[in-house]
Amino acid sequence: xxxxxxxxxxxxxxxxxxxxxxxxxxxxxxxxxxxxxxxxxxxxxxxxxxxxxxxxxxxxxxxxxxxxxxxxxxxxxx
Length: 78
Hints:
Blueprint: E1 6-7, E2 27-28, H1 33-38, E3 42-44, H2 53-59, E4 63-65, E5 75-77
Parallel strand pairs: 1-2, 3-4, 4-5
């Protein structure tokens, strides 16, 4: 549908799992202030202590938090 999807997970390497159909072009990225600020949305699906949650909260304009780790006016939780 035209979305550009990027993924960050410090515990998964590029060769750990075969790409699912439709995700052949999934780009793995590091979590950075600039990358977070440039995203339309950040979706938190995994709860890893390796993620810098204050950094994510400070720089992402919108966060869908599926793990209930963050709070704020720009955070929505499932």
